[in-house]
Design a protein that fits this description.
The structure holds 2 protein chains of 2 kinds.
Chain A (H helix, E strand, L loop, with lengths): L1 H29 L4 H5 L6 H10 L6 H13 L13 H36 L4 H13 L4 H15 L22 H7 L3 H38 L2 H8 L4 H38 L5 H10 L3 H29 L7
Helix pairs in contact in A: 1-13, 5-6, 5-9, 5-11, 5-13, 6-9, 7-9, 7-11, 8-9, 9-11, 10-11, 11-12, 11-13, 12-13
Chain B lengths: L1 H12 L8 H6 L2 H18 L1 H4 L37 H37 L1 H15 L3 H12 L3 H28 L2 H8 L4 H38 L10 H10 L5 H29 L6
The chains are: A mainly alpha, B mainly alpha.
Chain lengths: 335, 300
């Protein structure tokens, strides 16, 4: 059953990706403004421009261009970046780990922070503490990652200048890595000073991405927990003499976590989308920052590769969420 | 025939004590009053910007560059929130920047609402093939990261206010479409729709005169929330340099300049950021309050 659902979802997902690819391909080419115009010097002749267009295959008919590109993609070749003069797959492979480390750190922080506050709010229910949490959270729910990022800049780079403002790691320390997963690698190889340096660079972008998600988690999880706390099984556990904290963590949480988990998955795709602007603000070298440059320079092959990559990440997250929810909730397994 | 549906609707709800009128409920909701009050204040400021702004927002004065806000050492009289790197008055620029933000909020969110709701109404009411096509389209649309898509669209359309508005409409119609579709489907199952059908209302009449008025409350709340989103998207696009030309002050453009000189003049970043924050929170609180006051299901 579960397998059939996954296969079905994958098929639909691949079709969606194909649709996305076609839309982007056509959109990029039917509108004025092409990458050649961005790279030529003002004195270039018409012949020079034509030669450059032919060099990048931009003079062929639209269908031919699409056919060539599709053949390449199926064979794992996304073309060459027009501005960076490197294979698109190479650029993406070197930038993706930075974004993955950032997004996953933000997800972990959001779950810890949001879960913690939700549990605290449940313990404090019907007190002034809950009112404060609800009031603050209703404001925080409205604040997007863009505003958080800049507020954090003012706080930790200007008012209390304790964190580095830009980059992923001090350039002097960025030597001797076997992979591009700097954080994971430095922790696994025990280079804790390096890991600390990376973490200090990641703190602000991670928080900017995590805080909006944490606010969403607080609202939904606290609601579910409060509903669970008045159920019979919690009452039974209470009669057995379990402490309040244990009631929340062991009895209520297990039953209340489902909806939050599903929503967190959907919100995680928003978080990944948010890396685009947050990486820009902190000059963090991931695929989001790369995407803005690619778009500004009209680097067609790079944009196409990035859009497919983002689309693929979104689809994988959605399938992962469905599977997790289905595994945790036996009632949904056959839905 | 209007009466018929009206009596049907009221006869079921008239059993208890009369609930307070919508206007009274709205006036009693602190979220609506505070959020709406701030937005109203902002609209007045934006319209009267040339009269309210203490300085010419475009006038450069390099002798007065990065003057701190009033109350700080080396502050200059007449520059309440200080000046930016080119000696332009920050307060005046924040005031004028409200114009772009509010224009985008109302125009872009309004158009997205119009298009999304129409498609949502059709999908929810017609069902079958129309629903399948529109739903599939929404799914494909939502596979794009919104920020990336908006930057892509604006880069493709060329920088400018029109492009920003088009980009927001093209991306965010799906929010309205999804909600309105589900709401329309739910309303279509209601007795009053069956009644309207029985007495021979045409399908457009049922959709626009019977169902639409019942979807509007949800729509108003959603529209208000969307305005907050539109303000942020405009700021992000201005920040990246893809919105209106750089001689028109925008909050996002000011934030980008402030980000560059954050160590020399933090107020150049802080002032537009606070304005943006307050506006977004106000739209959200207003939307929350409206949803609570207008939604018949959530009414207590």
């Amino acid at each position: 059953m579960l397998l059939a659902v996954v296969v079905n979802r994958m098929a639909v997902a691949l079709l969606t990706l194909a649709g996305v690819a076609v839309v982007v391909f056509v959109l990029l080419r039917v509108v004025p403004g092409d990458p050649i115009a961005m790279m030529i010097s003002p004195g270039a002749s018409a012949a020079d421009i034509a030669a450059l267009k032919a060099h990048y295959g931009l003079d062929a008919p639209l269908l031919t261009q699409f056919w060539i590109w599709t053949k390449g993609v199926v064979a794992g070749d996304f073309g060459t970046s027009i501005t960076l003069h490197v294979y698109v797959t190479e650029v993406l492979a070197s930038r993706l780990p930075a974004t993955l480390e950032l997004a996953i750190s933000a997800l972990v922080v959001a779950i810890a922070l949001g879960g913690g506050v939700a549990v605290a709010g449940t313990l404090l229910r019907r007190t002034a503490g809950e009112t404060v949490i609800d009031g603050l959270n209703s404001i925080l729910l409205a604040v997007p990652d863009f505003i958080w990022a800049l507020a954090l800049v003012l706080l930790f780079a200007v008012a209390i200048p304790v964190l580095p403002l830009t980059g992923r790691i001090d350039p002097a320390l960025a030597e001797g890595f076997a992979t591009k997963f700097y954080l994971a690698e430095s922790i696994l190889t025990g280079r804790l000073a390096v890991a600390g340096n990376i973490l200090s660079h990641m703190t602000m972008p991670t928080l900017a991405l995590a805080l909006p998600l944490a606010a969403v988690i607080v609202r939904l999880l606290k609601q579910s927990l409060k509903e669970a706390m008045v159920q019979d099984y919690v009452l039974l556990a209470r009669i057995k003499g379990f402490r309040e904290l244990r009631l929340v963590l062991q009895e209520a949480l297990r039953n209340a976590v489902g909806p939050t988990l599903a929503l967190t998955g959907v919100q995680f795709t928003f978080l990944i989308g948010g890396t685009v602007i947050v990486e820009r603000i902190f000059a963090y070298p991931g695929i989001g920052n790369l995407a803005i440059d690619a778009v500004i320079n009209r680097d067609f092959p790079l944009i196409q590769g990035l859009v497919l990559l983002f689309g693929l990440i979104f689809i994988l997250i959605n399938i992962g969420v469905d599977l997790t929810v289905a595994t945790l909730n036996p009632r949904l397994r056959h839905a | 025939m209007e009466h018929w549906s009206a009596t049907l609707a009221t006869s079921t709800t008239d059993t208890g004590p009369q609930p307070p009128s919508v206007a009274a409920r709205l006036a009693g909701d602190p979220k609506v009053v505070c959020g709406g009050g701030f937005i109203l204040f902002l609209i007045i400021i934006a319209i009267a910007a040339p009269l309210v702004a203490p300085q010419d927002p475009l006038a450069q004065n390099l002798l007065m560059a990065t003057v701190p806000p009033a109350g700080f050492a080396e502050a200059e009289p007449g520059y309440l929130l200080g000046t930016d790197g080119l000696g332009r008055d920050v307060l005046s620029r924040v005031i004028l920047g409200a114009r772009v933000s509010l224009t985008v909020a109302f125009v872009a969110a309004g158009l997205a609402c119009l298009i999304g709701s129409l498609l949502g109404l059709l999908a929810g009411f017609l069902g079958d093939r129309a629903d399948a096509v529109i739903s599939r389209l929404v799914d494909i649309w939502m596979a794009f990261p919104p920020v990336l898509l908006s930057i892509l669209l604006v880069a493709v359309l060329g920088a400018g206010l029109h492009s920003v508005i088009i980009a927001i409409v093209v991306i965010d119609w799906t929010r309205f479409c999804r909600v309105v579709r589900i709401e329309t489907m739910a309303q279509s199952q209601m007795d009053y729709v069956a009644a309207a059908r029985t007495i021979g209302f045409s399908r457009p009449a049922i959709l626009f005169r019977e169902i639409l008025p019942n979807v509007v409350p949800v729509l108003i709340a959603l529209l208000t929330l969307e305005m907050g989103i539109a303000v942020v998207v405009e700021a992000i696009l201005s920040f990246v340099g893809l919105s209106v030309s750089s001689d028109t002050p925008t909050w996002g453009g000011m934030i980008a300049e402030g980000r560059q000189i954050v160590h020399e003049g933090w107020w150049v970043l802080a002032a537009p950021l606070v304005a943006l924050f307050a506006t977004v929170v106000a739209f959200n609180q207003l939307g929350d309050g409206l949803a609570r006051s207008l939604d018949p299901v959530l009414r207590r």
